[in-house]
């Protein structure tokens, strides 16, 4: 008598969940609660072999494959796909000699920061250490050290990738330069990354934090900011955000329920040097709170103070070629303190420096030539869920006269394939599509931001 054919559960080490199994909701819960993932099946992968089996099983059953780590970049309900969750792939190995880290697909930045700090090293993480390493890095990855060290993707040394055929591949600049180029900036379009190795930088402390100005000073702060950034060295990375803060008791009293302007600063240098650079901004208006001081890199989240609790959000980004006075006026007209608009945040991040130069090993990161990145974020709940896409789009549209090409991929927000493809010039778009078509001709993978065709 023949033994019954093994089921998917028999073939993978991690859990296989489907249907109305109550564990599905906990398995797919992520940061952005605007979307409730409804995959056909979830594989809680523990290793590359689990991912490979899940991909082969999905293709054998004519299903697409999606992947989720933290849900910070969740842009759809992933309906009908085989969803690979990666949180069990949580290994972190830091090598202080080669100044590098090798981490599993489910690792968040906080784990790398903690593991690297004892060696006086830091990763090119972003504004929130709760974000996943892989999704962030494949999308470029712009953080508080960006002007000095560039995008996180620029520091990737190798990647372990499960392809559409279920093959586990080591990808680096020597063995597979074209795929290595495409992966670093083209995000999840080429397969599922199961492990990533990247360089760390020698940063133990910095002069950084945030200054909160009252809404009444918004015009003065933004106009001062746009000229101040031209005076900054590459060691200084900054951004400024218009925040409409909720009246939550956990917020400090001066900020609770207020419209505030949040200047964020990360300076790699001494406190004296940093304070001298910051002096012109400190002189613009009396702050509600000034939290800029010398700090360990491990406290990097205190610069942006991003929310950490899951919330329903919609975001839309753009890049700007320049920020002249008229652009600041336009931004204030659409999102400033005198406008009644239910946005949570409109943020302008200063680019340039190492961000503006090609990576040592060229990558597909789009948006390098921009001077600023713009991001509008709003709540995607209740009646606002209907209007938030057009409210955030209106911010981007108002800034169109100064816009660059598209957005940084990590800040694009939910977008169809044509909009994703428009981030690259014709030559790079053709290269990316060629890699994708060679590697995944049947479009097995269904990433958050998918390339067309
Ligand atoms: C609060 C907050 C702060 C942020 N700050 C920054 C910032 O400072 N700088 C910045 O550049 N971005 C920032 N982002 C954007 C963030 O980098 C992207 O949303 C990123 O995609 C999140 O990755 P994740 O794995 O955490 O999220 P997930 O939602 O789990 O994944 C999002 C997408 O990443 C891809 N992906 C994830 N894992 C894999 C994998 N193993 N293999 C292949 N593809 C994979 C897939 O396309 C997936 O759809 C922020 C987002 C939030 C919500």
TrEMBL record:
Keywords: FAD, Flavoprotein, Oxidoreductase. Belongs to the oxygen-dependent FAD-linked oxidoreductase family. It comes from Pseudonocardia broussonetiae. PROSITE patterns: FAD_PCMH, OX2_COVAL_FAD. This is FAD-binding oxidoreductase. Pfam families: FAD_binding_4 (PF01565). The keyword Glycoprotein does not apply. SUPFAM superfamilies: FAD-binding/transporter-associated domain-like. It comes from the Bacteria. Residues 35-203 form the FAD-binding PCMH-type domain. InterPro entries: FAD-bd_PCMH, FAD-bd_PCMH-like_sf, FAD-bd_PCMH_sub1, FAD-bd_PCMH_sub2, FAD-linked_Oxidoreductase, Oxid_FAD_bind_N, Oxy_OxRdtase_FAD_BS.
């Amino acid at each position: 008598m023949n033994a019954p054919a093994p089921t998917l559960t028999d073939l993978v080490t991690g859990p296989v969940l489907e249907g109305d199994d109550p564990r599905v909701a906990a398995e797919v819960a992520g940061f952005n609660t605007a979307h409730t993932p409804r995959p056909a099946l979830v594989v809680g992968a523990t290793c590359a072999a689990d991912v490979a089996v899940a991909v082969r099983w999905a293709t054998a059953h004519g299903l697409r494959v999606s992947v989720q780590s933290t849900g910070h970049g969740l842009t759809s309900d992933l309906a009908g796909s085989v969803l690979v969750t990666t949180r069990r792939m949580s290994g972190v190995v830091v090598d202080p000699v080669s100044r590098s880290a090798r981490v599993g697909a489910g690792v968040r930045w906080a784990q790398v920061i903690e593991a690297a700090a004892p060696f006086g090293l830091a990763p090119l993480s972003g504004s929130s250490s709760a974000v996943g390493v892989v999704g962030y890095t494949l999308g470029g990855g712009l953080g508080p050290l960006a002007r000095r060290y560039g995008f996180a993707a620029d520091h990737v040394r190798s990647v372990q990738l499960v392809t559409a055929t279920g093959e586990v591949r080591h990808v680096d600049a020597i063995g597979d330069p074209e795929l290595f180029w495409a992966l670093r900036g083209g995000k999840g379009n080429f397969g599922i990354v199961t492990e990533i190795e990247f360089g760390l930088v020698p940063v133990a402390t910095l002069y950084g934090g945030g200054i909160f100005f009252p809404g009444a000073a918004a015009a003065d702060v933004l106009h001062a900011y746009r000229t101040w950034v031209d005076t900054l060295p590459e060691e200084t990375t900054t951004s400024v955000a218009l925040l409409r803060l909720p009246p939550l008791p956990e917020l400090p009293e001066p900020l609770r329920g207020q419209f505030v302007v949040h200047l964020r600063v990360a300076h790699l240098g001494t406190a004296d040097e940093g304070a001298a650079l910051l002096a012109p901004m400190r002189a613009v208006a009396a702050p509600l709170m000034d939290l800029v001081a010398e700090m360990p890199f491990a406290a990097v989240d205190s610069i942006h103070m991003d929310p950490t609790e899951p919330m329903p959000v919609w975001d839309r980004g753009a890049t700007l070629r320049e920020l002249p006075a008229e652009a600041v006026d336009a931004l204030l007209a659409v999102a400033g303190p005198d406008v009644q608009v239910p946005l949570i945040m409109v943020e302008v991040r200063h680019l340039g420096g190492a961000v503006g130069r090609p990576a040592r090993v060229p990558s597909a990161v789009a948006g390098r030539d921009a001077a600023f990145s713009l991001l509008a974020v709003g709540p995607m709940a209740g009646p606002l869920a209907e209007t938030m896409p057009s409210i955030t789009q209106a911010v981007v549209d108002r800034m169109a006269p100064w816009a660059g090409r598209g957005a940084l991929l990590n800040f694009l927000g939910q977008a169809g394939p044509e909009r994703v493809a428009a981030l690259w010039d014709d030559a790079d778009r053709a290269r990316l599509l060629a890699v994708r078509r060679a590697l995944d001709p049947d479009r097995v993978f269904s990433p958050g931001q998918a390339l067309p065709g």
